[in-house]
Specification:
The chain is an all-alpha fold and 255 residues long. The protein has one domain. It has helices at residues 5-25, 29-38, 43-67, 73-92, 101-119, 135-154, 159-169, 175-199, 205-226, 231-254. The radius of gyration is 17 Å and the shape is globular.
Length: 255
């Protein structure tokens, strides 16, 4: 379908703002995809086109983080490999689950992230060396990365937020490292899902390119800002955003 000029402009503004903020918080798709639904875009096309745009967003953020030396390739490489397989599976599963199951999953997950992050008060304030992280904790992080990767390839709403909590809580990364790492990992998650969606013919490329360029620019700017903040401030921003997202998802579920 073709969007009117005002609707397209509204989407551009929305995607720019959410991409800039979402560099820290994640969960852009919890806002952008429902708005695309309201504008009359078919659900599968909205999810696929949003995923196409997310690929640009993650590249934009990763470029900024790479230039500032925030990416630890050695520690992230196992997560990238797991995510590639998991997200491909998730993209193939789009449409196989009830649309009503997604809000329930996201609501429960957001509440868990809030409780987990508040409970582990010292997590993310300065990272740990890989050697200092218990082997059992690493295994949990790898398993959760796979499960979240499936969900990330299928929908992505809240995926990065939950993955950030996993990397901080179980993988021993600081908030700065986790925020940068999730964007790098999500380049591969969104890219492989986009390939599957393209093969299925679900992407609106005209809308996707406009939104993708918008998100790339916003994420690059947002990531440059993040590199200037310390872990404590990133933790405060992250927790505040997740609490608001939890309230939103609960409200949407009740509604």
């Amino acid at each position: 379908m073709e969007l009117g000029t005002l609707n397209l402009l509204a989407l551009v503004v929305l995607f720019f703002v959410t991409a800039a903020i979402g560099v820290v918080t994640g969960s852009n798709s919890l806002i952008t995809v429902p708005v695309m639904f309201q504008f009359g875009i078919e659900p599968k096309v909205a999810i696929a086109t949003n995923m196409f745009g997310l690929t640009f967003m993650n590249i934009g953020a990763s470029v900024s983080f790479i230039r500032s030396g925030k990416i630890d390739y050695g520690r992230l490489s196992p997560l990238v490999l797991i995510t590639l397989a998991a997200s491909a599976i998730g993209a193939f599963l789009v449409g196989q689950f009830s649309s009503g199951a997604v809000p329930v999953f996201v609501t429960v997950s957001m509440l868990f992230v809030v409780g987990f992050t508040l409970f582990k008060r010292e997590s993310g304030i300065g990272g740990k060396n890989k050697e200092d992280v218990p082997e059992g904790s690493i295994r949990i992080a790898l398993l959760l990365t796979f499960l979240l990767g499936v969900y990330g390839g299928m929908y992505s709403g809240g995926y990065v937020t939950m993955l950030t909590a996993v990397l901080v809580g179980f993988y021993g990364l600081s908030f700065t490292e986790a925020v940068a790492g999730t964007k790098f990992i999500n380049v591969f998650s969104s890219a492989i899902a986009t390939v599957v969606f393209a093969w299925q013919g679900l992407i609106d490329y005209y809308l996707g390119i406009i939104l993708g360029v918008t998100m790339f620019a916003a994420a690059y700017i947002g990531a440059k800002t993040v590199t200037k903040l310390d872990d404590l401030w990133l933790r405060r921003i992250f927790i505040s955003a997740v609490i608001l997202l939890a309230i939103k998802t609960v409200w949407d579920l009740i509604g």
